[in-house]
Structures are given as C-alpha cells and as structure tokens.
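Contributing new records

If you add data, match the layout below exactly. Sequence lines come first and carry their own label; structure lines follow with theirs. Keep one chain per record. Anything else will be rejected by the validation script.
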Amino acid sequence: MNLLVLSDTHGNYPLAIKALEDAGPVDRIIHLGDDIEDARMIEAIIARPLIKVPGNCDLGVEDARAVSVTFGGRKIFLTHGDRYQVKSGLTLLRKKAIAEQARIVLYGHTHVAAIEEIDGILFVNPGALCAACPHPSCAILTIAAGKVSAKILSV
C-alpha cells in the first residue's frame, strides 16, 4: 500500500496535483493541513476522497485536528503538528503517539521534510508545497509485507 502525504500547500493546490502525478499510482492521499480547502479542491479534481486534517491556518474549520487510521495493520496518527509544538522538537508528539499506540506519525507545520525513527515510532513530515517554499516536497509512505518505509519526493 502506497500513501501520498501532503502538507502545507497554503493555496498552491496545483503543485499538489503535480505531486500526485509525479508520485505515480497511490492507494490513498493524506493532506495534513494548511490549507484544507486545497485538500477539498484536490478531491474535486481527482474525484477521490482524501484523508485530511486541518492546520493552524485553517480558521473556522470544524474537522478533527488529529485522527488515527489503520493501514496494512499499522496504526498511524495524523496531525498538522502545531498543537504538539513540532517546531521545537518531537517530544510532545512522541508522547501522543505512545498514548495513541501509533507506530507511525504523519505531521507537517514546520515546512521542513523529515523522516525519523524514535523509540520504534516512525515520524514523517512531508515538507511543504506552498508557492514560497524553496524546496517543495511530499512523502510516500509504503506499507507492504509487514514492512514500512518512507521517502521524501522533491516536487
């Protein structure tokens, strides 16, 4: 199973569509906020639902700010990341992942792509796709044959 992970499009949904084209076939698409309206636009364009959570710039949006999903038998915690102060490190997010019993955490907010394993938990930040980003990126999370891997894709 391949999951395309997007975050921080900030109104630049055309670049997110390019990321989807560049990524090739994916089973699901996840948008981690800032701008959730971009996620809705992408859904309309590709006629497929996205899994999405709003970010700190998605004012007035009532959607859940974090969700847990399970793919390939792996529990994944999804959040934008601002409420866990990810710009200051992953300590709070690690505690939340442990509380949620998640083995994978997908987050954004920092605009910096990162893949890191801490205490057996895989943390993936796809980076950002906003127009002002010097290095736009997304991530592919692959769950197959009981193994999990992630990679960052430049867009």
